[in-house]
Every structure is written in C-alpha cells, then in structure tokens.
What does this fold into?
Amino acid sequence: MFKPLVFYIGLRYTRAKRRTQFISFITLTSVLGIALGVSALITVLSVMNGFEAELRERILGMTAHATITGRYGQLDNWRKLDEKLKNYPHVEGAAPFISGQVMINADRRVSGTMLNGIMPDYESRVSEVGNKMKAGKLTDLVAGQYGIVLGAELANYLGVMMGDKITVISPQINSTPAGIVPRMRRFTVVGIFQVGMYEYDRNMALINIEDAAKLFRMGDAVSGLRIKLDDLFNAPRITYELGKALYDDYQVSDWTLAHSNFFKAIQIEKRVMFIILLLIVAVAAFNIVSTLVMVVTDKRADIAILKTQGLTSGSVMGIFMVLGAIIGVVGTALGTVGGILLALNVETIVPAIEKLFHVQFMAADVYYISELPSKLVWMDVYLIAGMAFFLSLLATIYPAWQASRINPAEVLRYE
It folds into this structure.
C-alpha cells in the first residue's frame, strides 16, 4: 500500500495466474535471452581486451615506446643526446641501437633477417628481451667475439643450436681484386630468445653494437635511441612534446605509429563484435514487445475498469512500461553478474573444459597464445548494461501506448 499505484499494478502483472502460464513462459524466455546476450557480450569483450593487452605487452617487450633517429638515418652524438634525455621528466630509460637487414646462412638454409646491434647493459632499460631468453644471456654478447642471439623460430628454421657457427651477409659490398663481393662475417650462436610473437621470433637477431658498427661501417654512430616512457598510452603526446624540445635535429616516433594498423584492426574487430552481440541483446529485448502485447490483450478488461475509476492514459502506459522495465532489469542484472563471473574466471574455466574433453582450443604452435587471456574493463560493463536496459525500455513503448488507447466503453460493452 505504500507503493505508487502504477508500480504496484505493474509488479502484480509479473505474477502468473493459471490461465496466463504461456505469457509467463514468454516473459521468462525474454529475461533469459537478455541475460545470455549481456553475459556473452561482457565475456567476449573481456577476452578481446585480454588479447589486445597480451599482444601489446609482447610487442612492447621488443619494441621501445619511442625511437629517436637522426635526419639522415643515424646519430653521431648519441651519448650527448642520452645525457639530455635523462633530464626529461617522462623518459625512464634510453638505449642505442644499430639496425639493418641482412642474410643469415647456416649450412644450406638462408633467411633474410632484421639484425639489431645492442648494448646489453643498456637494453634492459627499454625492452624485456633479456627476460625472454630460452638459452644463454644477453651479457654473452661481448664486443669483438662476434656472438649472436637468434629468435627461437629463426634458430629452428636454420637448424642451429647454442655454439653453432652461422654466416651473416650484409647488403654492403667490398671491392676486392676478385671483384665486388658482399660483406660477410662468421658469428657464433650464444643465445636464443622467444617472446611469443612470430614477427620477432622468426625475423630478428641481436649482436653487440660494436660488432654491428663494424659490419655496417657505422663508425661511432648509431641508428638511433630507443626510449622507455613513464606512460606508454600517452606516447603520442609525449613524443610530440619531445620532438619540439629537440627542435628539427632529430626525428621522434612512437610505438603507435609502428603498429598503428595492427591495433586499429583490433579496435575495428572489437566494435564489429560489439555490434553483432548487441543485436542478440536487441532481439531478446524486443521479445518483450510480444510479451506485453499478449499481456495487454489479456488485461483489456482490467485496463477498462481502471480507466473508469479515473486512471489516466499516461498511468496505464506507465503500468506496462514498468512491467517491461522489470523484465529488462532482471535480465540485465542476471547477465551482468554472469558475464562478470565468466570474464574473471575464463582463464580457469577454459583449461578445465579442455582437460575434461581432451581438446585444445588454441594450439601453441599455431596461435602462440595457448591460453585465453581476459581483462575485465568496468566501463564496458556499464555500457553494455546501460544499452541492454535502454533497449528493454524502448521495447515497452509501443505495447504500452496501445494499452493507453483502449476505450473502456467498447471493452465493457461485451463484459
């Protein structure tokens, strides 16, 4: 009796009588449909967020947040620039590098490879490759000993192991009495890394920066400086400000430019998946239309009596909007709770299913990510729940409007 009349009547209409069991069944399917749609949407978006975060982490394990190069592709005074960067507030570390394309030959196998010359003591400032070593250590890259660290897939393709000799062929040439020949140098495999990204594990090798300078005839110059920033998501803004601070003497780029197409593709895929799954929620929400239409048909006499007792058309419309809103709220709440629980436990549930049915959904040798990562973003949860409730409320408008137009005289004439 303390409840508003409209809400009280709408709540009573959710209770089934014996002759309206079918309507209650349709109502239940609408609730379950909304719940399943919301739960699936939250879970799928969480898994996609997890994939994006995992791939970003693996990419940035090898790629610096920002890179500074000279106007002509090399830096002659990198030590002076390194000292200057130490005073810049957003820079946490910098490391020089020399990079170039080479051919690597091992027995009868040849592969084109990106060869990076690094300083092992500096490299830990900007990348995680030192923590991804399957064999050996980065500190084994000693200047003058011509050691090389290969990606795991590259080593597997070449068929080499620790201690094996390989030949690195540079595109630069030497003029000899026998003619023009490419520059070649024998290297010893002193380490193998695996970061879990085929792009790096198959197409990258590391050597000491002094050995790289000799191979590419760089002298005391380097190709550039790789930089680690305090906030990788603000890399575009920070690199823009850094570029202005360094004037026009250097070129500054960030990781979003190097991998922009890849992450844009992931974002587009997330949006498309969101729209597709939201359509499932919309179909379930608009099942409320059929439910309310049947309720209105069943309650025509009740509506006519209420109108004769002074209930306005707006209040009648409100009764059925309350009924539809209750269905939407219950379905959205169940789906939100279920989606959150699934998203938080998907990394446990999926392995359990794989073990139970002896299957593997993501083979490590195909996808390189053998587990389903999940990252629950609360803003996604709020957005999904809000959209589901809005669609449920939208579905109530037409049936409620039809109920408000019922003429009591025409209905009660035959009662």
